[in-house]
Specification:
Helix content is 50%, strand content 15%. It is built from 12 helices and 6 strands. Helix 5 packs across helix 7. The chain starts with 11 loop residues before the first helix and ends in a 5-residue tail after the last helix.
Length: 301
């Protein structure tokens, strides 16, 4: 990615225009690093405040400056978020976002956006996460990332390589959107009817079911693992969990997902990680606080 030059930003109007043009990118960086809309918005707001007080005449590349500030703020928040998530009740899942209008969420590419990938990024140190996101999603050069993170270009290359290896080692062959939607629709049909055998046929042998209720609503307090256990777990609540619900198909984090509502209110978001032939992971976001953002973008909800 070439250096980013912008017109003089000494005036308030031009400074505001540059910030607004860059806002989606700032949010995209922060969201990928933090996995929640509120924290990403906090990063954007703090970046704006710093942009107001900096000597803008001394800023040669305003966009690069804004991205650097947002990245460093996100790193600081990620470091404190780690300890908070250790006390989170039950499994933690990223907050889903609607990507139908902006499939890449302000990035050059739609990388590091799927819920499962964001969950994998949580296992990396914040600086590793930042390097991976800037390289894979925003196509920053190793030199540019080094300037943001105050590292040598060589160190950045090593960090990005390790992060890629970590992500690739946890992922299997990716399915197309059509395959993902087909399997997820079949899964929901079987889940609503509590058809144990149909669920087992759809699930991979090492399938995992992860539920995020955040201690606010009832949810499994640990991931359920293995085809038979996952199928039995899902069939066990079929008689009551789906009663009176409606399903709206949405695009969450670049993938098809099912927003489940009851009485017009979001009740849960179900998404899946699939191979071309089977479901590897089912994620249930049922913490109400994590449904507000995506539900607000869906008129029918």
């Amino acid at each position: 990615m070439p250096p980013e030059h912008s017109p003089n930003v000494s005036s308030q109007d031009s400074a505001t225009a540059v910030f607004l043009d860059t806002r989606s990118r700032l949010f995209g960086v922060a969201y990928r690093m933090l996995g929640t809309v509120a924290e990403a918005e906090d990063v954007v707001q703090e970046t704006w405040l710093r942009w107001q007080t900096v000597d803008r005449l001394a800023v040669l590349e305003p966009v690069a400056y804004l991205v650097s500030v947002a990245t460093r703020i996100a790193i600081n928040i990620a470091q404190s978020a780690h300890s908070r998530r250790e006390t989170y009740i039950g499994p933690w899942l990223p907050e889903p976002v609607d990507t139908s209008a902006d499939p890449t969420l302000g990035a050059e590419r739609g990388e590091a956006l799927e819920l499962a990938v964001l969950l994998l990024l949580e296992k990396l140190r914040p600086t590793e996460r930042a390097a991976y996101v800037l390289r894979e999603a925003f196509e920053y050069s190793h030199r540019q990332i080094g300037e943001v993170l105050d590292m040598t270009e060589s160190n950045v290359r090593q960090i990005v390589t390790r992060a890629r290896r970590h992500i690739a080692g946890e992922r299997r062959a990716r399915a197309t959107k059509a395959e993902q939607e087909r399997l997820l629709r079949a899964f929901l049909t079987a889940a609503q009817q509590g058809e144990l055998s149909a669920l087992e046929e759809l699930l991979g042998s090492d399938a995992v079911s992860t539920s995020d209720g955040g201690g606010i609503v009832r949810a499994a307090l640990a991931p359920i693992r293995g085809r038979a256990k996952v199928a039995k777990f899902i069939a066990s609540f079929a008689s009551h969990w789906w009663t009176g619900t409606t399903i709206t198909w949405v695009e969450a984090n670049g993938s098809v997902a099912a927003l489940v509502s009851r009485d017009g209110r979001p009740y849960g978001l179900v998404s899946a990680v699939v191979s071309p032939t089977e479901i590897e992971q089912i994620m249930w976001v049922i913490n109400p606080a994590k449904l507000a953002s995506i539900a607000a973008r869906i008129p029918s909800s």
